[in-house]
Every structure is written in C-alpha cells, then in structure tokens.
Predict the 3D structure of the following.
Amino acid sequence: MTLYTVIFYLLGLVTVAATILAITRSNLVHAVVYLVVSFFATAMLFYLLGAPFVAILEVIIYAGAIMVLFLFIIMMLRPEKSPVKAGTRVRRWLPALVLAGITLASLILLIVAAPGGATPLLLAAASPREFGRALYHHHWFAVEVASFLLLVALVGALYLGRRDTGTAAGSLEEQP
C-alpha cells in the first residue's frame, strides 16, 4: 500500500465523516463548518487524482462562494439559538477540528512527498480553456439549470427571511 493510497482512503473517510456530521447537526453554523471541511477534503481528493483545476474550483466555488451564501441565508433567517450547556463548547467543535487536522496533515504529506515518486495514478491534465469549452459546449444546459436553481433558492430565502411589521401602508384599519 503506497502513501497515495493511504492518503486517498484517509481523505475519503474525512469526506464521509464530515458530511454525515453536517447532516446530523442541529446548529446550522456547525453544519456549514462541517460542509467546508468536507469540501476541502473533496478538493484534496481531486488533486490527488490528478485534477488540480477541479480541486481549485471545488475550493473557490463550493468551500468559498456557496458556503458564504449559506452563511448569508442563515444570518438572514436568524434561527432561534438553542441553549448552550457549560462544557459542551469544546465537545461540539472537537470533531470538526480533528477532521480538519487530518485534512491538513494529508495536504502536508502531499506537498512534502517526493513529486517525482512513482504514483499508481495517471495524471489527467486539461487547461482551463479546454475545461471551459467542454463544460459550456456539451453541458451548457446543466450549468443553466444549476444557476437557475441557485437563483430560486436565493429568492426563496429572501422571501422567508423578510419580517412583516404587522401593518401594511394601504391597510383599511385606522391607526389611533
């Protein structure tokens, strides 16, 4: 078993564990943190498999833009806070810190490992221009559907997040 195989399985385990923790958390901010850890581990998997451009897109688009959008929606909706018990703060963040530490250690191992070493995986290289042409030439409809779904989600979050004051300007009731 090579170093790359160990790192691959370790990152796969981190991705699955962080995703499961994100799904099972009741605190939305904690769920977003676990999703960010999952996205970074997935990006490392893409890099390990020879797709550095897709890894960068994973970090920029998902771990960056989408998670900022999620946090923006969470702040707009202002969910009610659950009471925090004493001594549970460290216990809540410990799994995220452990998974993030494993991902960081895997990244350091990939950087330090001999770049000229024998790897069992063939690297697939594509320039951003080739990737863009393939994406927008063959999969343009899927890109448009995804962007429309994001727009609908944003409009829905804005609709749900607005606060009614109770009286409208054109109300028939008289104000005292």
About this structure: The chain has a mean pLDDT of 77.
